Amino acid sequence: MHMALQSILSRKNAMIPGVFLLLLLFSSVLIPYVSPYAEDIRGAVHFEAGNQGPSLQHWFGTDAAGRDIFTLTIRAGLSSLKVALGVVILAVLLGVPLGLLAGTIGRWVDEIIMRITDGFLAFPPLILPLTITAVLGPSLNNVIIGIAVSWFPWYVRIARSQALVIRSMDYVLLSKSMGSGNIHVMKKHILPNSLSPIIVQASIDAGYAILISAGLSFIGLGAQPPEAEWGLLITQSRAQFLNHWWVVTFPGLFIVGTVLSFNMIGDELRNVLNPKLADQS
Amino acid sequence: MIKYFIKRSILMVVVLIVVITITFFVSRCLPGDPTALWVGDHPTSQQLETAREQLGLDQPLLKQYYSFIKKLVRGDLGISLRTHQPVITELGQRFSATFELVTVALVLSCLFGFPLGLLAAMKTDTPYDLFIRGIGYLGLSFPVFWLGMILQIIFFGKLDWLPLQGRYTNHIYLDSQLIFHSGFLLVDSLFSGEWAIFSDAIKHICLPAATMSCAVLGIVLRTSRSAMIDTMAEPHFTTYLTYGFTPGETILRSSYKNTLIPVSTVVGLSYGLLLGGTFLVEAIFDWPGLGQFGVLSILTNDFPAIIGITFLYTASYVVINFFIDIIYVFLDPRARQ
Fold first, then answer.
1. Residue B155: which residues within 8 A CB-CB, separation 6 or more?
2. Among A30, A31, A157, A245, fewest CB within 10 Å belongs to which?
3. In a domain? residue B109
4. What's the pLDDT score for residue B104?
């Protein structure tokens, strides 16, 4: 794992997006202390300064309420990174144990768990997160729950397929013949071996989670004002975006940059951790 | 082959049953009381009780589940809380607009994505290939709602080439005399010979379809490219080359067929991506379809409508992928045995 980390950091395709994400994280945490427009984050309005194009004072311009788009866009990075992390952790926690169980025990347990995951995967992307969030009520936390509940089947599948391969390996059979039970096998043998495909999937999912949460915030299901979130920033400026291109463009570029970064890191991770799959991208 | 067909059908039914079950539990077991929405603000406990009886919520869960399925089979999706019309009627009126948009987007992405992907495979690691792969990457990272607005700014705001939103211009639509009324405006106007409304409809569908096809284009590009690269590494390809055919000829006459299976798989899966995208794209382009109706339902907490759309979208997604599984048999002679 340590070596994998070293070799991934030495790759340009992973380093540039990695630096971008780290910079985004630090600046989004620090921006309330450095920006002269920090009070905009808490919902301050200055209508006299509204609808200004990009300038030296306002790098990304201001919206109709006179809020500084640069400050808000950077701050919104924090919400999106929170969503990415939340979705991935929750989906792994839900999916991996079920997958290990299905793969290790097999038989009817496997059959039931897999048919249920088939059902979840049959929903078109965006539809299930959207419905769950709509039922739970609009908020960023519910978006995290909605996306994680829709995506955990992917982790079930990964953990299961690893378990199927590893449970019939000689060393596992030996360990079983010496009396170790299913739980021990799952914990000591199968879980460590499933880590790398899970990490690859998680890093790619992190990007798409941000994309979906921005979409849900855009239609009013995600972050609520005065929270700063990219999709919300774009939807707030919809009334007059045709004349004020900057209010839409910059938050969107940050979504693209972040999603692209997670995608590239995921692809590079796959190349490093699982060279056999590298050509399939 | 018959066996394959039966096996696929059974699998589809099982998936649909699980889908219905998940939908039911999402709509019933999660927090949020549907009775409160039914009766409106500040209800008395008496009203709540009656509403609970009307909605069947006082029944045991298993009985509710049973009647949920029974209604679904009859096509009864309940009454919309917002419009007070049966949900199925509302969906029926908007289905054709969405289907038209999604189909045009899908055709566009295959029309461009497939040949460009094959071309990229022939020229691996040239600047052209890098450019194509870059597009594939970017297409998947663009938020569709943002892309739509950027296209509106450019093609309506700056250039004024295309209309901002909607499906047709009202006065042109009212002047036209359509003979066919299938609901698919492009088809209707084409067969009625109404060129004014046909070209108007084309202009209107350009931006939303382009917006939606972006992500799918990326997927089709990447899949056709990598499938072609795999095919080019196979012995039969080298054999053709030694006969003196150029790689281009070989691909055009024979080898492209090997990429049809993986490409048709992702086309089936992309349908889901497109259906999900309708919620965002139709909202932006004021397209009178299911997605726009869905967003309105969400904003007004119209749960029967939300559940109805979820079910309709998922069912059509499952059925489409079922048909793609069947098409495999025709694309790949090996699957016929």
1. B161, B162, B206, B207
2. A30
3. yes
4. 93
